[in-house]
Amino acid sequence: MAEIGGFEARNASTARDFQSFGRVRLYRGIGKKFYGKSNYAHDSQYRIEEFDTTFWFVFLFFPFIPLRSYRIRRKYRSRWNIFGSKTYQMVHRIPRKWGQIICTWFQALIPLFVLQMLGRMFVEYLRSQAG
What is the DSSP letter of 83? Predict the structure, then answer.
């Protein structure tokens, strides 16, 4: 009976923490979202995946502020399945993983640099055509 009480207490604590995520969703590129994935584990029998990730404040689809890091569990979805589960279950909160955070920032900066280079090339093309 004590085991059930302990499980219920842990489950209630996890539910409170899960609710503290707020909406894990972007509206027009602004909001909160999980980015990054490390220490990945996949259980093919139960089709569940588990990984460490960081919860970010996002502005214009760019991850600006890392809010906290978690060990997350969710139903497995293939990489290209856009209709897969977006319901996350927090296993536990972990210390911020700065390596993963810096890697996420660099991965987010790459498209910005590419767009900047394409913009410069386009401006130069327009200048060369004008005269």
Answer: T
Write down the H helix ranges in the chain. Answer: 2-19, 98-130
DSSP 8-state symbol, 46: T
How far apart are the two ends of the chain, measured CA to CA in Å? 84
Tokens at 73, concatenated: 């569990």
Distant-in-sequence contacts of 16-19, Cβ < 8 A, 24+ apart: 17/90, 17/93, 18/88, 18/89, 18/90
* Residue 122 vs residues 24, 38, 103: alpha-carbon distances, Å: 37, 38, 29
The 10s digit of each residue's pLDDT in 65-96 is 999 899 988 777 666 656 655 667 778 888 98
Task: State the CB neighbour count (10 A cutoff) for residue 98.
Answer: 11
C-alpha torsion angle, residues 10, 11, 15, 21 (rounded to 10): 60
Long-range contacts, 61-65 (Cβ 8 Å, 24+): 61/26, 61/29, 62/108, 62/112, 63/33, 63/35, 63/104, 63/105, 63/108
Enter the pTM of the model.
Answer: 0.65
Strand pairing category for 30-43 and 48-59: antiparallel
